[in-house]
Batch of 4 targets.
Target 1
Amino acid sequence: MRPFSCCCRRRRGREQKHQQAQNAPRIRGQRVVLVHHGEDERQSSGFPDPQLTTLGLEQARALRGNPLLEGCDLLVVSPLRRAVETAVAIFGEKPGCRAMLTALHTERWSGTCDEGQPKPELLKQFPFLTEWDGWAALPDGAWWPTASSDASFREMRVPAFHKWLRAQPERRIVVVGHGGFFEALSGGRQLQGGEACELPRTVLVDMDGVLCDFEAQFLRRWRDAHPEAAWLPEAQRRTHYVDKDPSGVYDTERSHAIITSPGFYETMPPMEGAIEALSQMEATGSIRTCICTAPFGTSEVAARCEAEKRVWVEANLGKEWLTPWKFVCVKDKTAVPGDLLIDDKPEPSTHWRHEAAESPSWKHVVFTQPFNVEDTACEGKPRLDRW
């Protein structure tokens, strides 16, 4: 069967139409440094909110003059005692920059040592905290999480803090906090007492049509299954969802049967240059790359889709890319913290069946595909034409 011929809107030249593509994707010039509090007495005390040990104070003081902390214009501190003591040991009670107290990044709950103190008790030890931003907003009662409320801290608090952090106007930010929370925030980096590191930029990368050649896979399977049926050349498709194309070539029943056929996702060919590009980004040391993909369908269909995508990732990138820090499969990508999301979908923060989700922390970089070239949802967004 010859390819279906449809009336296409007249398209401008690639150079004119992709004028915005000349703006290379840029991550906002904000540097965030994470500081793990010094050693504390949690092992010996067994009480809530333990203080630093003598060694912990020495670890904190040793960070004075650390080049990573130079030029700080925003100091963000967890209200737990060990974090406040660490911040004061480094910067003093009046840091010389905006100091912010917030429970957004307090430690994930793992026992009584991660429970804090009410504000009156904190003031007895740190009366200067009333002069710090965020003190008035700290709840008067129990501001710290509990075992039940913090069960999904990675899905709730970490994205919220990342989004809040990137929204701050300051360019040089130091965050004093805790190992468990920082591990989730940084994508697996395990800091020790008194250690500091720069928070890597997070680039989220979609799979279908970005890492994997979804179009080639679909066309091949469609033509194998329906050799007499019409089909659309890739350049003529005008919608992200194949069965929503105005040509009407791909009906929902048959197209979904193709997409949900066994092995569809795990055998997709990689996009040219994609595997090498991910390796190069990882090699910089300053970029954390995370695959962020959505499963097709619901319930069992979605579970099978995710399982096949995991097989693809392990086969093409290695098993190390299947950790929670490197692979996320969710319907709502707005909840995933990041700086950039490379995605071919014109508006990845929405789904055609649902209302728009919350605004994401990431900036959308459109991975160019024929169907998104003229889509108004892509206007003004940076583009990546190819790897």
Note: The longest helix spans residues 299-316.
Target 2
Amino acid sequence: MTPVLRCLSNLLTEEAVEAGGGQVQLRDERVVASVFILLQFLLQKHPSLLPEGLWLLNNLTANSPSTCTSLLSLDLIKPLLQLLPVSNAVSVLVLTVLCNVAEKGPAYCQHLWPGPLLPSLLDTLAFSDTEVVDQSLELLQLLFLYRPEAAQAFLQQSGLQALKRHEEEAQLQDRGHALQQTALHR
């Protein structure tokens, strides 16, 4: 099943790029809805393949504002966040998809904040996996950039204490310090 998922991912992404002259133009919400049906199936029947399904969603959202819009209009952020505890690999991919959405700018971040995103990100800062934490820090940085009021909520919800847990980890020091400075100076 893994080769089929990878082929599907490559075909959808390749077709979308060709259709848009370099920009992914998949505007059909049915594609995003179908991917979520696939993710639900994988979670229930083949959880080890869930990262492959999320990789497909990552490919679709990477350069496509319209796919990100579909993700938001179908109200699929909360179901994505519910996948965070499944595994570290799944968490990284979920956070990457959310970063893809946040990178599209303020209008997209408006749909991410306020809502369940910040509490979920604070939970991921408790993970021991540095890749998960690093991706969480990236998403928080984007959120603070486009929704400065999220930085204040981060501080109010003990975000700095969550960051302190990773002060000794070399991979996370710079990003954690930058996020702390952003939060304090917003």
Note: The chain is about 75% helix and 0% strand.
Target 3
Amino acid sequence: MPRWDGDGESPDVFSVFMMVSIWFSVFFLLFIILES
């Protein structure tokens, strides 16, 4: 995954959305496993 090196290029919205979705899914699964 490309890193954002402050060279004036804005981060890709789709990449940010995908990364947030993956982390949300991971935390959601951990929550279910710990609660069960």
Note: The longest helix spans residues 13-35.
Target 4
Amino acid sequence: MWKKILKVCSELLIGAVVVGGAVYYYQVILASGGTAKKRAAVTPSVVAEVQKKVQFADVIEALGTGSAKEAVEITATVTAKVVEIKFEDGDRVKAGQLLVRLDDDKERAEFDQAEINLDEQEREMARIDRLSKSNAVSQKSIDEQKTKLARSKTLLAVAKTQINDRHLHAPFAGCLGMRLVSLGDLVTPGTKITTLDDISEINVDFSVPEKYFAALKTGYEISVKSPAYPDETFKGKITAISPRINLDTRMVEVRAVIDNKAMKLRPGMMFLVRVDMGSRSALMIPEKSVVSLGEKQFVFTTGSDGHVTRHEVTLGSRRGGKVEVISGINDGDSIVTEGVAKLVDGMTVNFVNPSKTGEMTK
């Protein structure tokens, strides 16, 4: 009897499993499959626009640093005490103007003695010359006196140089920096006295990508702006282009010169440099229409059959949300500008901007 009861229970259990599986299959598996198919059948909506070439102003922008036309550190070349200072911090000086005098009493005494010796040797030389006309002096005496005279001239020149070494002059006209010595200081060779900068012109050094190397030319005009004068623009010209490309940065160094007669600019200032390379016809498309896959860039063009085609493109300059297409699509092509993330090559799409896509709109 128990065997019959167990058999009936087993049959009932198996039946329940079969019915439950059938219900799950119809309600879950088939239902979800149908939903997936419906989802797969949804046509994505995109915005497409016809792209036309425009006049594009080729502009290079870079950060530059200013430097003086001429710059030097005024330093001592001898060991001596400072006995006179002839300038103040920040003075503008002329070329050759005396800045500092070091103690030169001993050197002046030596110079005076050298002048006396030279005077004596010149008088002796004149006497020997007179005697030589009457053959009253030997050639040996004449030669010895010439040697003494030459030596006296050399000693006088040395004494004069020693005095000059103790008189520090401005090598060119310019603006002095801070005074770094005081009266009575003992300076030695290399002691820094002050700095001197000729800022009548300011050099602006900046770097640009090597792709511009062939296009850049000396004489090109530049404009610069400084944070110190945010409302002013200063003009200059390119004067030098480095013949070398930096191997690490792939950049080329450029120098421009800006007239600074107003004395507003200073060495060390940072500048935003703008080089106008002229205008040209270029195909500019919205940056948001570009899809990047690895190191490659793609855009989708649209056809009259409602399909999209993926094209690999080479890009150029960027400005204001637009990017230049150098190759990959043509002037007059219609490309997808919105909704590109969900597209694949050959997909059918629905255009939502009929005013811009014309006959392509569905």
Note: Confidence is low (pLDDT under 50) at residues 1-6, 22-40, 355-362.
